[in-house]
Amino acid sequence: MNSKELQAGFNNPFLNRPWMTESGAAATEEKKPAAPEDKKKGLKGIIAGGLTGAIECLITFPTEYVKTHLQLDEKHGKKEYDGIIDCVKKTIKRDGIFGLYRGMSPLLLGSIPKSGTRFGGFEIFKSYMVDEKGNLRPRDRAMCGLGAGVLEAIVAVTPMETIKVKFIHDKRMPNPKYKGLFHGVTTIVREEGLRGLYQGVTATVMKQGSNQAIRFFVMETLKDWYKRGDNSVSVPKPVVGAFGAIAGAASVFGNTPLDVVKTRMQGREAAKYKNTFDCIGQILKNEGITAFYKGTIPRLTRVCLDVAISFVIFESFMDLFHRLWR
């Protein structure tokens, strides 16, 4: 190439465009395989999610306790509670204020891997599906949430929820047999095998998958609306909390029937159901369609608070990690 050709190349307006420089999109595409940062973000998500799960469990468990009791209070049997307030009053009268935390220990221990898997899983799935601007398409928001929900259902939620429901249900029996967390878990495994910890796994996968698909879809959509597609914009934490409450409410109305079925499949009387679909049929036949929405109000209260708190705490930890962990 002679000097005239070389000079022409430098003066070529197309070759001098920003996208052909190191700071342009072409360079970004070449550098996009900065997978270590993606993996680091996933690890940050797992740790931040675990811490988030422990904190929100301590705050919201009493509403989970009430919801579970109301869902186990079957219509064709003798009803023990007249509603939310009656359940709270009778529990405190019978067991004191700490009675509202009955069954919390397995939930607290399980909340760490549960929340860690959920948020970490979402961050990992998201890292593979974002565009060059770091944005997710609407369909991909739901898919990442679905993947995170299924993952947490298998890894943590099913055994944790089964133990929790059995503990709460055991307390309702004339002769409770679980003396504590260790005794209860070993009794379940001895009598039912490891399968006893995975009762209702189908319903749980369906519930958690739909739960997180709805929540993350709504949350990411609202955040994208606020940012107008500009990821350099920071969403204030009170706004994150409000968006989280909206996402939580959407998931409650979307999958409470699955939550009722899951709870019945994990109780001590789960043996009377052949499978998830038999449970659905029996509830519909014996109690009517309204039974699928038992515990909706306390669940709505708990979930809105839970999801709002979770997203605020999670994003606060992620902001902290981004500053201190590079």
Describe the structure.
The protein is mostly helical. Helices cover 73% and strands 0% of the residues. The chain has helices at 3-11, 25-31, 35-72, 84-95, 104-129, 138-172, 181-192, 201-227, 237-266, 276-287, 296-324. Helix 3 (35-72) runs antiparallel to helix 11 (296-324) and helix 9 packs across helix 10 (276-287). The protein is globular. Mean pLDDT is 81; it is low at 8-35.
Gist of the model:
The protein has helices spanning 3-11, 25-31, 35-72, 84-95, 104-129, 138-172, 181-192, 201-227, 237-266, 276-287, 296-324.
Instruction: Estimate the helix proportion, in percent.
Output: over 70%
Q: What proportion of the residues form beta strands (DSSP E)?
A: under 5%
Q: Please provide the ordered H/E string of secondary-structure elements.
A: HHHHHHHHHHH
Tell me about the largest β-sheet. none
Mean pLDDT score, rounded? 81
N- to C-terminal distance: 45 Å
Oligomeric assembly: single chain
Low-pLDDT segments, ≥5 res: 8-35
Supply the helix-strand structural class. mainly alpha
- The total of beta strands comes to 0
